[in-house]
Design a protein that fits this description.
The protein is an alpha/beta fold. The chain has one domain (3-236): Rossmann fold, CATH 3.40.50. Helices cover 36% and strands 27% of the residues. It has helices at residues 3-10, 58-65, 88-98, 114-125, 129-142, 158-170, 188-205, 216-219, and strands at residues 14-27, 30-43, 47-51, 73-78, 81-82, 99-102, 176-180, 208-212, 224-229, 232-236. A six-stranded mixed β-sheet has the order 6-7-8-3-9-10. It has a four-stranded antiparallel β-sheet with strand order 2-1-4-5. A hairpin with a 2-residue loop joins strand 4 and strand 5 (81-82). The longest helix is centred in the C-terminal third of the chain and has 18 residues, at 188-205. It is globular. The chain starts with a helix and ends in a 7-residue tail after the last strand. Residues 1-11 have low confidence and may be disordered.
Length: 243
């Protein structure tokens, strides 16, 4: 753990906690244990990379952290809220206000422009378009798309669509952003600008970023690298992150 994270831990500033988190699937007569009583904390302003082999359960873990799936047992707590205790309606509202998501596939709404896609979480929240427009525009500028705000997803490249998705995840200033291979479709220069944006946002707003990635260069820029192996997260020295 970084010195900053250790200090935050001492001050009790965990934004996300997993307690004895387990997930298993039934495959015919067999049960497949994906996560096994996993315990994990993340702190405000911290950037964490989760790495591991394909099929190790990284995306499953990310879905549990975001309340998109329910664990077999154990708890996920974010900003003091136990996700298992929230109704579906409460969980939807909580995700809108406290979590940002960037998926491997961008999941943009095809009938809306880049700007409208970024604005969407705030409009769903009930904010006035005029009030949140400057922040959405500023984020699109910061991800290099200020000149593409009126373009719909079909008119954007794969990398541009992913950058719109990143801006959308950040627009509500969430406590935690969960990212699944966020730089997978980006060229090295754009990937670096996205990483720098995460660093700046984290410092400015104490946003926590948890990133599932195979990009070892990206992982090694994070505060911590955790490897998911046999249902457990194991902290990795950064120079061994790709091992």
């Amino acid at each position: 753990m970084s010195n900053e994270a250790m200090n935050q831990a001492d001050n009790g500033q965990a934004v996300l906690q997993c307690t004895d988190l387990s997930m298993e699937y039934v495959n015919g007569p067999e049960k497949v244990q994906v996560l096994n009583q996993l315990n994990f904390s993340a702190y405000r302003g911290e950037r964490i990379a989760i790495v591991g082999s394909s099929g190790s359960g990284k995306t499953t873990l990310l879905h549990l952290l975001g309340g998109l799936d329910k664990p077999t047992s154990g708890d996920v707590t974010i900003d003091g809220k136990a996700l298992a205790k929230l109704s579906d309606a409460e969980l939807g509202l909580f995700r809108n206000r406290s979590l940002g998501f960037v998926y491997q596939l961008h999941h943009l709404l095809p009938e809306f422009t880049a700007l409208e896609n970024v604005l969407m979480p705030m409009l769903i929240r009930g904010e006035k378009r005029k009030a949140v427009m400057p922040r959405a525009m500023a984020l699109l500028e910061r991800v290099g798309l200020g000149h593409r705000v009126d373009h719909k997803p079909a008119e954007l490249s794969g990398g541009e669509r992913q950058r719109v998705a990143i801006a959308r995840a950040l627009v509500g200033e969430p406590a935690c952003v969960l990212l699944d291979e966020p730089t997978g479709n980006l060229d090295p220069n754009t990937a670096e600008s996205v990483n720098q944006l995460m660093l700046e946002i984290g410092k400015e707003h104490q946003t926590c970023f948890i990133t599932v990635t195979h990009d070892m260069a990206l992982a090694q820029r994070m505060d911590r690298v955790l490897k998911l192996d046999q249902g457990q997260l194991v902290e990795q020295p950064k120079e061994m992150a790709g091992a």
